[in-house]
Amino acid sequence: MDLNSASTIVLQVLTQATSQDTAVLKPAEEQLKQWETQPGFYSVLLNIFTNHTLDVNVRWLAVLYFKNGIDRYWRRVAPHALSEEEKTTLRAGLITNFNEPVNQIATQISVLIAKVARVDCPRQWPELIPTLLESVKVQDDLRQHRALLTFYHVTKTLASKRLAADRKLFYDLASGIYSFACSLWNHHTDTFLQQVCTGDEAAATNSLERTLLSLKVLRKLTVHGFVEPHWNVEVMGFLHAVFERLKQFLECSRSIRAENVCRDRLEKTIILFTKVLLDFLDQHPFSFTPLIQRSLEFAVSYVFTEAGEGIVFERFIVQCMNLIKMIVKNYAYKPSKNIEDSSPETLEAHKIKTAFFTYPTLMEICRRLVTHYFLLTKEELTMWEEDPEGFTVEETGGDSWKYSLRPCTEVLFIDIFHEYNQTLTPVLLEMVHSLQGSTNVEDANAILIKDAVYNAVGLAAYELFDSVDFDQWFKNQLLAELQVSHNRYKPIRRRVIWLIGQWISVKFKSDLRPVLYEAIRNLLQDQDLVVSISNLYYFFLNGCLPVDDFEFRTDQFLPYLESMFTLLFQLLQEVTQCDTKMHVLHVLSCVIERVNTQIQPYVGCLVQYLPLLWKQSEEHNMLRCAILTTLIHLVQGLGADSKNLYPFLLPVIQLSTDVSQPPHVYLLEDGLELW
Predict the structure, then answer these.
(1) Which biological process annotations from GO are given for this protein (predicted)?
(2) I need a labelling partner for 391 at 20 to 30 A (CA). Which of 128, 147, 282, 560 fits?
(3) What pLDDT score was predicted for residue 145?
(4) Rounded to whole angstroms, how far apart are CA atoms 263 and 619?
């Protein structure tokens, strides 16, 4: 492809390919696809996307086609591979100028340079790293930023290579540039802090962006660039400096308004500092040993004392808790039962942990977790009132819940309680004893505290097996609390049924189950949807009817079968969200499976409702899976009478087992079992 004559034609076709008119767009895409294997095509694309006078959309499309071409045709062994001559020209052109004015295009160019580097650096492209190192020193802000952006993407890509020869090359690279990377990071960090002090927000924002990029480079070099990083003075010096820089940045957050653009970047940088520590601990636990004491002091100080008040934010708290958790449960830091079999490194790390986690420290962490972090927030209580079903879905494992503070605090509590249960059991039991009897419904804070303490007892159920007489507690207090009907007591009713669900498979006498079934039936009639659904989810799924529950006796449950099944069916009709309907169907399936043919007198309403629900769930394959599971148990429970369901079942089986239909991916296995 002749560059001079082809540039105009390619530019014209790229312009057509950005059209919204499919009649223009489709032929242009076909033409571009044909040119992908033409010699010189990528040189033309390079000339187009580096020409800043052209339309941004055209340049964007050109850089995307170039990037996709690298994946397909850059390697020597690829069909229609680019010639070595053209690749040499392209490599030189890519790093001639780091002056792309459009951020999105600059990022794509950095990524495609990194893709080329993955294949060619350093052997076929030895000048790449030296060019980048020189370019990040220039005074021009734009060129400096673009070079630093490229430096990060190249480092990230090279760090991800896993072959032994590639790892050796990256170790050599890291050793050669680490000192420079540290100096670069310190320079941009100091500049940012100075500009914050002088109130120059625009300049501080620019410097913070460079601080963030240089820190990203250092993260990759530190975590992946050394076999035994603890022997490298600069690496350990950088890691110790992370704590000081974190304190400085957290203090900076006091003076930067929440609505400031810089605030978001500042928080991202703070989180990146914590990721450096977490990644290093994950990859090099023994090299992290000199940092254990300081990490624990830092994290505990900001999360469990007044030091963090007014400056910490949720994601930072989550990261600090993850750091504590990883140190507490790290297998590299746990001695063998036979101490002589443990390495000196393990014993040293264990010694540091033991010295830190004294009784006062553990007691304060436990109390703070329970009485501060476990408390239902105003936002959660508002969501309970405004969207009870959505609240329940989130709390029982919704996507946003997985990444929020609450599950993180609960996991940390479980891990610390498991590791130090002899120390913490008396602390938790004392908190329980202080809450004996029903709580004043007018005291909202006391209700939230009791909810939090009961949560802790449920999470630590296995650890408390020998310390809590749960049967007596159930009879003397918990049962009575389930019967308090006041609207403000609903958090306790919900939490108590969850608590029983946690303990029923741990320690609960079979003789008490009829009493519990009576309480469950009353709760299913609760006008509050959250209490009803929580009752359903936590008790039935966690303890009452799972397949591995050998304590379940059908004769105990039969007196409550009709009313329970009716209430469950009413709940199934009442709820609207797909996830909730799946939970209810799961429980109905468990009930049908457990009582088998004795369900026959009560399933008429469900049999009539399922065809409607199947039709309504056309766009929800996971709900249809739950319906199929229910149908399987229904057929087994109805026996010969299931023939009456055939007009509905046969089309369901046909759709579920039709491999030409997209839903079969979800439905095939259950459809075949139903068949």
Answers:
(1) protein import into nucleus
(2) 560
(3) 94
(4) 41
Question: Minimal CA–CA distance to 207: which of 225, 223, 187, 224?
Answer: 187
Report pLDDT for 400: 46
Residues 6+ positions from 3 with CB-CB distance below 8 Å = 40, 43, 44, 47
Read off the pLDDT of residues 568-596 as tens digits, 9 standing for 90 and up. 888 888 888 888 888 888 888 888 888 88
Distance CA 210, CA 181 (A): 12
CA distance 37 to 139: 40
Q: How far apart are CA 33 and CA 363, in angstroms?
A: 66
- pLDDT at residue 484 greater than cutoff 90: no
The SS3 assignment for 26 reads helix
Give the ranges where 541-603 is alpha helix by DSSP (H): 554-557, 561-574, 578-595
27: which residues sit within 8 A by CB, 6+ positions away?
16
Q: Which string of DSSP letters, residue by residue, matches 487-508?
A: GGGHHHHHHHHHHHHHHTTTS-
Q: Is the pLDDT of residue 625 over 90?
A: no
Rounded to the nearest 5 degrees, what angle is found at the Cα of 362, between the Cα atoms of 358 and 364? 120
* Right CATH for 1-157 from 2.30.29, 3.40.50, 1.25.10, 2.60.40: 1.25.10
Stretch among 6-15, 58-67, 622-631 having the lowest mean pLDDT = 622-631
**How large is the average pLDDT for residues 517-536?**
67
Nearby residues of 594 by Cβ (< 8 Å), 6 or more positions away: 545, 552, 554, 557
pLDDT tens-digit map of 130-173: 999 999 999 899 999 999 999 999 999 999 999 999 999 999 99
Tell me the CB-side half-sphere exposure of residue 81, using CA atoms within 13 A: 10
> Residue 541 has what DSSP assignment?
I
Q: CA angle, corner 237, sides to 233 and 238, nearest 5?
A: 120
pLDDT of residue 533: 58
300-325 burial: b if 16+ Cβ within 10 Å, else e: bebbbeeebeebbeebbbbbbbbbbb
Question: CA-CA distance, 247 to 311, in Å (whole number)?
Answer: 10
The answer to whether the beta carbons of residues 389 and 584 sit under 8 Å apart is no
45 exposure class (CB count in 10 Å sphere: 0-12, 13-18, 19+): buried
d(CA 10, CA 197): 51
The predicted pLDDT at position 541 comes to 44
